[in-house]
């Protein structure tokens, strides 16, 4: 799930071992820690990172404003942000994406390089 912490958060220990095999974290983040508690005693995990999941949606973060002049590059340039299914923004430089642009509605010809690699 996309909840911050989901799955079985209360389990029964067997032979002195408690295993949280169904626990999941939907919110990406760095330096996360989990507090584990039993019978009034608790311990904190070492910090760990949760990376975003696979690309699920795109968001236009920046787009040209007002009329644009034919034949000139649009300004400001379009900026597209990538999100996983839990709306975690994907900013990992190892997850490069190729984005293409095509013209729709209104006609005209799209000039210039219509694909770009993202390194955000």
Instruction: Report the mean per-residue pLDDT as an integer.
Output: 81
Strand percentage: 25-35%
Strand numbers in spatial order across the main sheet? 1-4
Query: How far is it from the N-terminal to the C-terminal residue, by CA?
Result: 25 Å
| Percent of residues in helices | under 10%
Q: How does the helix and strand content classify structurally?
A: mainly beta
How is the main sheet built?
2 strands, antiparallel
CA-based shape: rod-shaped
Number of strands: 8
Number of helices: 0
Order of helices and strands: EEEEEEEE
**Uncertain regions spanning at least 5 consecutive residues:** none
As a whole number of angstroms, the C-alpha radius of gyration is 22 Å
Question: Top keywords for this entry?
Answer:
two-stranded antiparallel sheet, 0% helix, rod-shaped, mainly beta, 120 residues
Write up this protein:
This protein is mostly beta strands. Helix content is 0%, strand content 28%. It is built from no helices and 8 strands. The strands form 4 sheets. A two-stranded antiparallel ribbon has the order 1-4. A two-stranded antiparallel ribbon has the order 2-3. The protein is rod-shaped.
Helix and strand arrangement:
Blueprint (H helix, E strand, L loop, with lengths): L28 E4 L2 E4 L2 E4 L3 E3 L6 E6 L16 E5 L13 E4 L14 E4 L2
Antiparallel strand pairs: 1-4, 2-3, 5-6, 7-8
